[in-house]
Give the backbone structure.
Amino acid sequence: MPATVWKGNLSFGLVSFPVRLFTAARPETIRFHMLHKKDLSRIKEVWYCAEENQPVERADLVKGYEYSKGEYVVVQAEELKKIAPPTASTMDILQFVRDDEVDPIFLESSYYLAPEGAGSKPYALLLKAMTDTKYYAVAKVSMHGREHIVVIRPTADGMVLHTLYYVNEVHKANAAGRKVEGEFNAKEMQLAKSLISSLASPFKPEVYHDQYRENVERLIEQKEKGQKITAVKQPKVAPVVDILAALQRSLKETAKASPKKTSKKRTRAAA
């Protein structure tokens, strides 16, 4: 059974039932260790006290918040538990929204939301009701040292929960300059839409892979075997001067790359 990230109750009006959260996705990266350049031995992380000029054991560490320069207030784990909000044990559904009302920019992390024990029936009821009405649930839950606003959506396999960024965490100032006005003619628009249509297809996430990770794995294998490192040739991107010509070339390249469809007449003839 996968590790439980959070467990408690999901509250839907006066209906409350036990649920668990499991991690739905996490990035897969190649981890490097820090080594001593001289003898390639592993480097050990040491907690160090600047005041006493000596290393400190982990058991002697406490959490402190710097409220003024060099001034700290110590906060114990037991004290944090005492002030945890009710959402630390109960996830309250606050409202229901349409799926297109949630801007994807607010999505943070994804979890599977599963029922536990006697929660199967109310879970199934809420799942079916949300599926039929095409609504997402907005709730609050406390975990990992903070209270999250979350959106819960129904799927064919059960409920999926996404933590959301708060409005003040979305850096709207960085979006400045994205909205631009441009002049283009009907032919350019027609070709742009044609290019979109030629590249349109059902989304199949399994066909995508992390080429950077694969290149790093190959690099490690080549160095391990004492082989020459295979460099990756980087494309030369030139600024587009003639948009119309670039779109036309793009359509031609897309047509070459796409497999040719066999006509029905040829198929019957071959049969």
User: Anything to note?
Assistant: The radius of gyration is 27 Å. Residues 261-271 have pLDDT under 50 and may be disordered. Residues 103 and 113 are 21 Å apart (CA to CA).
